[in-house]
Amino acid sequence: MAISDSPEVMYMKLLRIKDNSQQKKDAFSQVAKLTGKIADKTLEQLEREGVFVFPETVKDAKDITQDQMILQSVNDTYRSGNVMGFLGYGDERLAIASRFCGEGEDYLFQYLLDKVLDFPNIVDLDADANQDNRLFNFLLFLFPHYLKAAMRKGLFKKYIRHRYNDGNVKGTIDVARHIKKNIPFVGNVAYSQREFSYDNSLMELMRHTIEYIKRKPYGKNFLSK
Predict the structure, then answer these.
(1) Is the pTM of the predicted complex or chain greater than 0.85?
(2) Residue 191 maps to a domain
(3) Which string of DSSP letters, residue by residue, matches the chain?
């Protein structure tokens, strides 16, 4: 369940299953839209449709094949494949855990992620599908992937208004600030100027996020990939 900032309370539809297991199709009724997006489709088909996949392309994975399915129809049941992770579509979430874990923490899944680090076999339909903290913080693994993709287009720049108080006036004079700071007059003028800069709030957020990941036990190794 997710609680929004508004008075209205939103209920997240979440279904948990295990990999390499079978469930009655009726059990998937609460995530029917999500199921319809992935059922009986190969990983190759899902990748073409824009599903986020670790590794970046299925053909680069050594332990999964392009013809594998996340969910496959078997009479009145769905059988899950070898893929573990989170899938999200709208307000529906599907969490696929290891068949070897109990009802508590999925330590095997966490161990596999820690060992593989760079590109574990995880599939996601929505970047905000981080609803089950018992498994792991999924966004931690999503961030480096999207950062790498964004960096192909170069560093992000935007117009920022900087405020100055010196003798090199190049922008708009700030009268109120000038009176406050420069009386009696000593040669400085308070002004502001719009500049196209790398030093902006988004870049600062990226830097803070990288530093946060680096503090994790495997963070530096993961980012180095």
Answers:
(1) no
(2) yes
(3) -EE-SSSSEE--EEEEEETT-EEEGGGGGGGHHHHHHHBT-BHHHHHHTT-EESSSSGGG-SS--TT-BSEEEETTEEEE-S--EEEEETTEEEEEE-TT--SS--HHHHHHHHHH-S----EES-TT----TTT--HHHHHHHHHHHHHHTT----EEEEEEEEES---SEE-HHHHHHHSSS--S-EEEEEEEEES-SHHHHHHHHHHHHHHTSTTHHHHHH-
